[in-house]
Specification:
Strand order of the largest sheet: 8-7-13-12
Distance between the termini: 13 Å
Helix content: 25-40%
Radius of gyration: 21 Å
Number of strands: 13
Strand content: 15-25%
Shape: globular
Length: 252
């Protein structure tokens, strides 16, 4: 039997690299995944955990009979800077969403959320507020899907992991049997959703986050660093060497 190993992409090349490692003990089967290149700064708000790891989340409560109650974490509060320019950014984004029939069909909740943000901007600007804070999605129970992975989950990262990738790691490290491997990630700050403006000189752009993830537990400029024994020091472009190294992480 082969151990189930999932590698959506390599952290350095972003190419799909399937890996199958021999496993003599099915109970030790695991998953190997690379979250690098994940999009969106709102990963917590839009997180949909894969069944392979979702059911491993630690219980937050019990029904009294020993049944594990799995809870997806809350998205957290976001603080917005109330300016006409920032309000226009969301209004323009909302317009593009509504102009795309497929997006309207598949993402109605996102459109409703964006509309609520525009309305919050209008209320804050009318009241003369400089900032306002909106609550994120509350914690919700998981679906209870059975977990097909009974062994360890290894997440491969490198310096290409930034932005939404780091937000994904914030979720993954809360789960049992998950280990971060590879090399130290990039860093970010609580200031997200960048506004990019061309400077009058036309030589460069100014980029700044127009909202702040004030409730985020991870601090500014704090990377994820693999623990001792989980750091890869070889050539990341050598796929043969990477595969052999991955095998050692599962005891192979």
């Amino acid at each position: 039997m082969n151990r189930r190993v999932l590698v959506p992409r390599t952290a350095s090349t972003s190419r799909r690299v399937p890996v199958a490692l021999p496993a003599s003990n099915p109970a030790r089967s695991g998953a190997f995944t690379t979250p690098a290149m994940c999009s969106t700064e709102n990963t917590l708000a839009a997180a949909r955990w894969s069944p392979a790891i979702r059911a491993q989340a630690a219980p937050d409560a019990s029904d009294g009979g020993g049944t594990r109650q799995i809870i997806q974490p809350a998205a957290g509060e976001i603080t917005y800077r109330a300016t006409a320019g920032n309000r226009q950014w969301y209004a323009d984004t909302l317009g593009r969403m509504r102009a795309d029939p497929l997006f309207v069909q598949e993402n109605t909740p996102v459109i409703e959320q964006t509309q609520a943000i525009v309305e919050a901007f209008d209320a804050a600007l009318a009241a003369g507020q400089q900032i306002f804070t909106l609550a994120g999605r509350p914690a919700v129970p998981d679906t209870g899907a059975p977990n097909p992975v009974q062994g360890p989950v290894v997440v491969l990262v490198d310096a290409g992991c930034s932005g939404g990738c780091l937000d994904t790691l914030d979720l993954l490290v809360r789960l049992p049997n998950v280990r971060i491997a590879g090399s130290t990630t990039a860093t970010d700050s609580i200031f997200i959703e960048p506004t990019v403006m061309r400077l009058p000189s036309n030589y460069s752009d100014l980029s700044y986050g127009h909202k702040a993830w004030t409730s985020r537990q991870r601090g500014n400029n704090q990377p994820f660093t693999p623990a001792q024994g989980l750091a890869y020091t070889g050539n990341p472009a050598d796929e043969t060497a990477v595969r052999e190294w991955v095998g050692t992480l599962f005891g192979g």
